[in-house]
Design goal:
heterodimer; A: 445 residues; alpha/beta; three-stranded antiparallel sheet; 15 helices; 12 strands; 13% strand; B: 566 residues; alpha+beta; D-Maltodextrin-Binding Protein, domain 2; Dipeptide-binding Protein, domain 3; 2 domains; 23 strands; 26% helix
């Protein structure tokens, strides 16, 4: 099976949230080969690890540098720009939400810590999550377990080429108890690159009156996403992975109004820990039950002392570039490359090598995790995967990573090689990586 | 997270070298790590190494002193260093380079040697006293041990047969990926698992040991070392002489020193007795006996110290029909005058805090409770209970005790109390090694109904199991400290609940409940909780005395500096 990956010409479909791009914008019409030149990439390197860190465009680097210099040693008031009102509004529009629901934070971990520790949970309340979450999610829920004596139920989701969205939803549904208060899951899992069925899981949560916390670290910059339409209460995002902003940037969506068509539940009680402008006496007004906010929760969360104005501006620039290129185009390109990657892996290493989904299109993402070694027992041999990734980097200048995760029913910790594709990657790069992996596997087996 | 190695600053300009003389109870120095108890760890550490170990404490409140540090392993596995999965069930250890066996070829210590050590602790001839910890934690280890024990019932117990079985079978959850990488998989997450790896049972074992039955005199005579010392000669029960191991490289051992040229262990049943205190041996270091701890010792940090001991307690041999009626057992619990024993301790161990114990788990340990179901010293009520049970004076009960420490004093006090309450009791003193054997194999060591015992925790964090599991669990694998043969399904279920709990507070609640139930059943009679003590610093005799808190605050013998004649 071979998937054709070609440059996606300018589409007539307008980006969903940004409105129709200006017809004259050359980025909308640029080929992906041309777009690649926007990025500060090493020319002889193949970057297939955007799930860990993306490559910043030159313009983003410039903004970061320029704004840093502009604010260095000046006497202007640094606090108002640190609230990022315009940037949050613009970024919010790109993700289908309002300024009062969008926060620029320091990274996904900070965002998730602020969300989890702001939940109104008490002893005996149950949170259901998975063993495939980022450590930041699991460690913060464990903190709540120690602090408030909540019950943390950790499920291990099914993996492999034949996994379906229904299986995943059913796994959560069977785990819900009368004490369950929160469902927490990744939008895209970092270990196996499974695009979780977020909308279906939010539907399930809403049926049971549950709060949803979505780790969307891999979402922005990759998928053209309407956060509100997905139906969650909270989504925490990285700014430096697929969105290609500076390290130390993130986005945080907090549902702050009720749109019944997306999530009819009342807004959950939420405590915006780390806040300068949360009232110093008294309390905010009751949370709204309508489409109009009763206060700006985003401001409470955004106000956290002095901010990195330059990094926020640089992230905003990255988001602006994505809007100009077209988030829908970027998604299509990355997803097509992901399909190409899966096809090449299946062709070279067999379908059973895949830990990532294959047959259910709803679950596939351009992060592909697989065990290329013919001996299945190598799937729990960390040394082989570490060596494979090291050799790819040192000999071939191909940057990937290995991941580790539980597999339901297996007593072992499993390891996988992971390839991520993004707008600056090409099918030729993927082919080169897969060929190099095949050679190394022969050597290491 | 990496803990910086602790190198104590020399207090004096005393040179390295000399002979370090150590006086210890006769049961204190089993040399074969595969069957050595946790209490022997300070000795075993002289010639063996484990995946992790401990460092001495500048201050006993220093958290670094109760946290395992890497020994044979390069790092303690963590999620941060990719050695520990999110589910906390899979540990990856990378072996430290430069660690070698004291063999003619100076072979590197490999991951396979650690696998061999895990298997050997399960041997059916002399299984490790710590086996129950590992059997309930490591995936497949319990089945491995029980299958080997079953096989051994119809096979010879010679070294070749044992080695053949060991080398033909695997523990599914313990395997080497290569010489340098070891994986240990757990049946369930265990917050104390890394602490367990510092026990003697988890030592690496070279292939040369396959030629000898574990724990046999032949094994002890042919040990291969990877620690700073090797055994040059020994006479079981009397003395052991260790000399420098030429294969040991200080650069590959961040947490041991080798100050003395030679270490001599003098084994004596008089150890820990005030009347046997060495006065003319300036280079001697005392080792605590089981009961009573060290004489002339310094209390560690008072009430807030970690790792108080259950010292002493009475152990009931529940296999004996005399204990079938619970009222008879309850009479024992009521008869013992714990306050009198406390006075006895205060006389012989001045300055060492003790508390009358109503619960199994002492302060400073996970699962401690202050409950006390039986008021102390109520012989009248004890007599009433015996009468209601129809218990008649008959053959006196045998109360065994070790000769060392305060064993005799406690035994005689308890025997008097029990006799006064209507349970005629005879205290029988045993040499320490014989006493240990009597506890380990009560069916073969002559009849005893009661024993004076003490228990010091085997590690200090998340350690509820060192009391409740070790002393109470009716486990199918041998070892442990359930010497009385206590078996209560409800308690076993609570122990399982504690072992299953990912939350420390939930585990502690289950440990507490298990301990309370067992004390109510009078599986044991807690008498005192004793504060931990450390050997006093005596630079005029031996310099560099520093305690290893998780090993009962024992002296780090590798760091002690005896006087060296100029």
């Amino acid at each position: 099976m071979r998937v054709s990956v070609t440059d996606d010409p300018a589409t007539t479909t307008a980006s969903r949230t940004g409105g129709p791009p200006a017809p004259a914008d050359p980025l909308r019409a640029a080929s992906f080969a041309e777009l690649r030149s926007l990025f500060a990439m090493e020319p002889d390197a193949v970057h297939l690890n955007t799930g860990t860190i993306g490559v910043m465009p030159y313009e983003v680097l410039d903004v970061n540098d320029r704004v840093t210099r502009e604010w260095n040693g000046g006497l202007r008031n640094v606090y108002p720009p640190g609230m990022y009102p315009e940037h949050r509004a613009a970024i919010g529009r790109a993700f289908g939400v309002d300024q009062d629901e969008m926060v620029i934070c320091h990274n996904a971990t900070e965002g998730v810590a602020r969300v989890i520790n702001g939940l109104d949970l008490h002893e005996g309340d149950e949170v259901i999550t998975t063993s495939h979450e980022c450590y930041s999610v699991l460690s913060n829920f464990n903190l709540l377990r120690n602090r408030h004596r909540i019950t943390l139920t950790v499920l291990t989701p099914p993996v492999g080429p034949d996994v379906t969205a229904e299986e995943i939803v059913d796994m959560f549904a069977r785990a819900i108890t009368p004490r369950t208060k929160v469902l927490a899951f990744a939008a895209v899992t970092l270990f196996t690159g499974t695009r979780m069925p977020v909308r279906q899981l939010c539907d399930l949560a809403q049926q049971h009156g549950l709060t949803t916390v979505v780790d969307g670290a891999l979402l922005p910059g990759l998928f053209d996403t309407d956060l509100r339409a997905l139906g969650p209460d909270f989504v925490t995002c990285s700014g430096s992975k697929f969105q290609c902003g500076p390290l130390g940037t993130g986005l945080l969506y907090v549902r702050n109004k009720v749109h019944p068509e997306h999530n009819p539940l009342p807004l959950p009680t939420f405590w915006p820990v780390i806040s300068t402008w949360y009232p110093m006496m008294g309390a905010p007004p009751p949370r709204t039950t309508t489409r109009v906010e009763s206060y700006n929760m985003g401001d409470y969360l955004q106000s956290a002392g002095s901010a990195s104005i330059a990094r926020g501006a640089a992230l905003a620039k990255a988001c602006e570039l994505w809007d100009r290129i077209g988030r829908d185009r970027i998604e299509r390109h990355a997803v097509a490359l992901g399909a190409h990657t899966r096809a090449r892996i299946v062709e070279r290493f067999g379908v059973e090598s895949l830990y990532s989904p294959l047959t259910d299109d709803r679950l596939t993402a351009p992060l592909v995790a697989f065990n290329p070694f013919p001996d299945r027992a190598d799937g729990w041999n960390i040394t082989k995967f570490a060596r494979l990734v090291d050799e790819l980097e040192s000999r071939h200048r191909i940057w990937t990573r290995w991941t580790e995760f539980d597999v339901a029913g297996s007593p072992h910790q499993h390891y996988a090689a992971r390839i991520c594709t993004h707008l600056y990657n090409t099918a030729e790069e993927v082919d080169r990586a897969v060929d190099a992996i095949a050679d190394l596997v022969r050597e290491l087996s | 997270m990496t803990v910086a190695p602790y190198r104590p600053e020399p207090a004096t300009a005393r040179r390295r070298g000399g002979v370090l003389r150590v006086v210890a109870p006769t049961d204190a120095a089993p040399l074969d790590p595969s069957c050595a108890p946790a209490s022997a760890a300070p000795f075993v550490r002289l010639h063996t190494r484990q995946l992790v170990t401990w460092q001495t404490a500048r201050h006993v409140r220093d958290w670094q002193a109760v946290t395992p540090v890497p020994d044979l392993a390069l790092e303690v596995p963590s999620t941060w260093n990719a050695g520990l999965g999110a589910s906390h069930r899979s540990y990856v250890f990378h072996m430290r380079p430069g660690v070698r066996w004291d063999t003619p070829d100076r072979r590197p210590v490999s991951a396979h040697d650690v696998v061999r050590g895990f298997k050997r602790m399960c041997n059916p001839v002399r299984p490790s006293p710590s086996l129950a910890y590992f059997a309930s934690t490591v995936r497949g280890l319990a089945d491995f041990a029980t299958a080997w024990a079953a096989e051994a019932t119809h096979r010879a117990g010679d070294a070749a047969t044992l080695a053949a079985y060991q080398n033909a079978h695997e523990i599914p959850g313990v395997f080497a990926l290569d010489d340098e990488t070891l994986v240990i998989e757990l049946a369930r997450p265990a917050l104390d698992f890394v602490h367990m790896l510092a026990l003697p049972a988890a030592s690496a074992v070279p292939v040369e040991h396959d030629a000898f039955v574990p724990g046999s005199p032949e094994a002890a005579a042919h040990l291969r070392a990877n620690g700073p010392y090797r055994v040059r000669r020994h006479r079981p029960g009397e003395w052991v002489e260790l000399v420098r191991n030429p294969a040991w490289e200080p650069a590959a051992d961040p947490y041991r020193r080798a100050e003395a040229d030679r270490v001599e262990l003098r084994l004596s049943d008089g150890a820990g007795r005030a009347d046997a205190e060495p006065t003319d041996a300036p280079a001697e270091v005392p080792v605590a006996p089981a009961v009573g701890g060290l004489p002339a010792a310094e209390p560690v940090d008072g009430d807030g110290a970690l790792g108080w001991a259950l010292d002493p307690y009475l152990l009931l041999n529940l296999r004996d029909p005399v204990w079938a009626d619970p009222r008879v057992r309850q009479a024992v619990a009521l008869a013992v005058d714990k306050a009198a024993v406390a006075d006895l301790y205060r006389r012989h161990r001045p300055g060492v805090p003790v508390r009358i114990a109503g619960s199994l788990i002492p302060p400073g340990n996970a699962g401690h409770d202050t409950a006390d179901p039986y008021p102390t010293g109520d012989p009248a009520r004890a007599r009433d209970l015996l009468a209601s049970a129809g218990h008649a004076d008959g053959t006196p009960l045998v109360l065994i005790h070790p000769h060392s420490g305060l064993g005799p004093e406690v035994a005689h006090a308890c025997a008097s109390d029990l006799t006064r309450a209507g349970l005629p009791t005879r205290a029988v003193g045993l040499a320490d090694a014989a006493y240990t054997e009597a506890l380990r194999a009560p069916a073969t060591a002559g009849g005893w109904q009661l024993a004076v015992a003490a228990r010091v925790p085997d590690w200090l964090e998340h350690n509820g199991r060192v009391f409740a599991q070790a002393m109470l669990q009716a486990t199918p694998v041998p070892g442990g400290a359930n010497h009385g043969g206590y078996a209560a399904p409800e308690v076993d279920a609570l122990i399982e609940r504690a072992l299953d709990a990912p939350e420390p507070w939930r585990a502690d609640a289950a440990w507490r409940a298990a301990a309370e139930r067992a004390v109510a059943d009078v599986a044991v009679v807690p008498i005192l909780h004793r504060a931990p003590v450390a050997a006093p610093r005596r630079p005029d005799r031996v310099d560099g005395i520093a305690p290893l808190p998780p090993q009962g605050y024992a002296v780090d013998l590798t760091a002690a500096r005896p006087g060296v004649d100029e």
